[in-house]
Design brief:
By secondary structure, this protein is α/β, with parallel strands linked by helices. Helices cover 33% and strands 17% of the residues. Strand 5 and strand 6 (125-126) form a beta hairpin. The protein binds iron/sulfur cluster (SF4).
């Protein structure tokens, strides 16, 4: 990074990751979040470069670990707008355990998964969302397994906001990201991002249908059973080449992890980030202070 020169994305031409960047850049100012109030935490993969390309605090973690880092940052500094991001391999495979438990505990931040149904950065291997029969270097005779179904997994794990959008629809994506940011609790967006370089089926995820606006679909996103049924239909349809997107589930009543901890008196009155950086902070004693406080 050279100060004064805006870094240019190194993603391939036509990559769906550009759609996420565009939507995120549009959403943050519209919900009034400034760069110094925002932290983006990314995993490993083409998606992991996201926080190099726009103005916020950034933390590029190791593979599959964006969620525990995001959780820690939000607990230490609840005033930060935290956005975690990563690919389908990073989030649903390597970090799948973190995904399940972050949803179960309903941590209060947004998680965007760039879902291109393959591993892109490492050159096209089968990923957890590759459809059954998908051929790749690692599965030359076709994947024998059914893929992960991210929306259903998210709902059953406990996420309180679940949506799917696609890079070909940055306006819908921007609106869903805004809603996710404003939501109190774990907000998961499965973001379909085409990889024209390695997914030779060249899925562009078009034409897409917005299930919240189409007359062909009638469900209530606040009704868990109806949401589950709509998710099941959406995930099966994608394998038949039909792209359904939209807001699938929202529960505004369920308290976030932070709210629950506050209710039972387990959250410190003063966030960690503020305790150690006030005027009385003594840098040379910081390790001793931390250890003493946590004995
Ligand atoms: Fe995008 Fe695929 Fe290129 Fe990675 S390899 S930048 S996912 S098009």
């Amino acid at each position: 990074y050279t100060p004064g020169i805006e870094p240019q994305p190194t993603w391939c031409p036509g990559c769906g990751d550009f759609g996420v960047l565009k939507a995120l850049k549009g959403a943050l100012p519209e919900v009034g979040r400034t760069p110094d109030e925002t932290l983006t935490v990314t995993g490993i993969g083409c998606s992991g470069k996201l926080n190099s390309y726009f103005n916020s605090y950034g933390f590029h973690t190791i593979h599959g670990r964006s969620l525990p880092v995001a959780r820690a940052a939000k607990l230490a500094n609840p005033g930060l707008e935290v956005i975690a991001a990563g690919g389908d391999g990073d989030g649903y495979g390597i970090g799948g355990n973190h995904f399940m438990h972050t949803a179960r505990e309903n941590h209060d931040f947004t998680y965007i998964v760039f879902n291109n149904e393959i591993f892109g950065l490492t050159k096209g291997q089968t990923s957890p969302t590759s459809p059954k029969g998908h051929e790749s270097k690692t599965q030359p005779h076709g994947s024998a397994k059914e893929p992960v179904r991210p929306l259903s997994l998210s709902l059953t794990s406990g996420a309180s906001f679940v949506a799917r959008t696609a890079a070909v629809n940055p306006n819908q994506a921007k609106e869903l990201i805004k809603e996710a940011i404003e939501h109190d609790g774990f907000a998961h967006i499965d973001f379909l991002t085409q990889c024209p370089t390695w997914n030779k089926d060249a899925k562009q995820y078009v034409p897409y249908i917005d299930v919240n606006e189409s007359d062909d679909y009638d469900f209530d996103p606040t009704n868990r059973d109806e949401a589950a049924e709509m998710m099941r239909e959406t995930e099966e349809a994608l394998h038949d080449g039909k792209v359904l997107t939209g807001k699938y589930y929202v529960d505004e009543d369920r308290p976030s992890y932070q709210q629950e901890k506050q209710q039972i008196g387990e959250m410190p009155e003063e966030p960690l980030a503020e305790r150690y950086f006030d005027d009385s902070y003594e840098w040379e004693r910081s390790a001793d202070m931390f250890i003493d406080d946590h004995k």
